[in-house]
Design goal:
435 residues, Rossmann fold, 3 domains, seven-stranded mixed sheet
Length: 435
């Protein structure tokens, strides 16, 4: 993927943070802790940065609480992402582990916002000013303000974590790439606790110095182990430099449905995440393509936005044959009674496979090698129509064999509960887990 000027600036900033010495964070990797914050800091204007500083000094917006305490059991770090798909997936993993202690992290909601005590306000302000002084090598006052405010916030969160007792040998966390989760992972590892994080979505490696926000799972991996869904994901992490002996192929916890063989030509369209570098252009191409396909097939289609997106962003598009899926509806709802699905650079590919639906991935100049089978990709409307016609000539048995091979490569569903349970038990008892 093309390395942009912004990517180069972020690379330089992260290199500077890698050698930064910040009071109160001895033994912590500042670069990893502020990996995603670095991008935010570079984009923020002076006014937004000032608001960030004021809010940090006066408002505590992170709640840390120990929900379950079972001495000697593995520690599960549950962060509320306010996303039904993330919560559902994590709850499945918790059910497999069975016996555990749990810390719940809630951030950014009005329910946890709390005005700091006067003594805490002064303490956070002092931490902020010391951090900003330590970051005098960073260009741009707004950038320094955002970084220092985050460090002040994290210093208070660290004190909350430090007060918690951990007696188990292992910790598990849904994601270790964001600032709070990364702080916790480093805290646990500094105590000698082995930590495993897990894949969500479908990470695709496409360069170490670009598109960091969509490659955080790979580029900012900070735990001892990453639990992935299949061999394709293992390949992506290894391309990103993660040693093979730190990658556990556990399989996907998604429910995998039988192969769907739906009559008719109605289909589903899944748009890219708006954080993708070319999302606006690519999503327009996807909608234009879907319109042409629906006209040719005399069919209708439903459009599913990414959870971070909103149909209102497409109100000026001329959409004749498609309709947006209402908020609150799931991927399964989008795929109901659909003969196939179209996507581009999105981890929803795994969900489409799990639903047993035929997927077609649009290929353009965006470097996102998500699919490896030619039958699952297309570069033009004409190519998709021809491949869909060819797919319809397959016998049910041939379709099943094809889909099962793809599902095994990406999702590896057979025996998934047993594999994760065995992995968690070994990690929790100090046994060798990668044999």
């Amino acid at each position: 993927m093309l390395v942009t000027d912004f990517d180069k600036r972020q690379t330089e900033l992260l290199h500077q943070l890698a050698t930064a010495s910040i009071e109160g964070f001895e033994g912590y990797n500042i670069e990893k802790m502020l990996f995603n914050v670095s991008g935010e800091a570079l984009r923020t204007d002076w006014k937004s940065a000032l608001i960030k500083v004021i809010r940090t000094i006066f408002i505590d917006n992170v709640l840390v609480e120990k929900n379950v305490d079972q001495p000697g059991k593995p520690m599960l770090i549950s962060y509320d992402y306010h996303r039904q798909d993330h919560t559902g997936y994590w709850n499945k993993f918790k059910k497999i582990v069975e016996d555990y202690s749990e810390i719940m992290i809630t951030e950014g909601t009005k329910s946890v916002h709390k005005i700091r005590k006067i003594s805490d306000v002064f303490r956070v302000a002092i931490i902020y000013h010391k951090a900003k002084k330590s970051l005098n090598f960073v260009e741009g006052n707004a950038t320094r303000n955002v970084l220092a405010a985050n460090l002040a916030d994290l210093a208070i969160i660290r004190k909350k974590i430090d007060q918690l007792q951990f007696s188990g040998r292992a910790g598990f966390i849904f994601f270790d790439g964001n600032r709070v989760e990364n702080l916790i992972v480093q805290n646990l590892r500094n105590r000698g606790i082995t930590v495993a994080t897990m894949q969500h979505g479908q990470p695709v490696f496409h360069g170490k110095d670009c598109d960091r926000i969509n490659q955080t799972m790979i580029l900012n991996f900070s735990s001892d182990y990453i639990m992935v869904t299949g061999e394709y994901s293992k390949k992506q992490f290894m391309l990103g430099g993660i040693p093979e002996d730190q990658i556990f192929v556990g399989g996907s916890l998604r429910e995998v449905r039988p192969i769907q063989d739906v009559s008719g030509d109605d289909f589903a369209l899944f748009l890219d995440c708006p954080t993708n570098p070319n999302a606006a252009r690519d999503n327009k191409e996807l909608i234009d393509c879907a319109e042409r396909i629906s006209e040719d097939l005399h069919s209708k289609y439903v459009i599913k936005c990414h959870p971070q997106d909103d149909p209102i962003n497409y109100r000026e598009y001329r959409i004749q044959n498609g309709s947006f899926l209402p908020k609150g509806k799931t991927i399964s709802d989008a795929l109901k009674n659909k003969s196939f699905a179209i996507l581009h650079a999105s981890g929803v590919y795994l969900d489409i496979l799990a639903n047993g639906t035929k997927a077609f991935c649009y290929i353009n100049d965006t470097d996102f090698p998500l699919v490896e089978e030619g039958m699952d990709s297309f570069a033009s409307t004409e190519e998709l129509i021809e491949k869909n016609k060819e797919w319809r000539t397959y016998t049910s048995e041939r379709k099943k064999m094809y889909m099962n091979s793809i599902i095994k490569y990406y999702l590896y569903p057979e025996g998934v509960d047993f594999r994760y349970k065995t992995f968690a038990d070994k990690l929790s008892t100090g046994k060798k887990v990668m044999e």
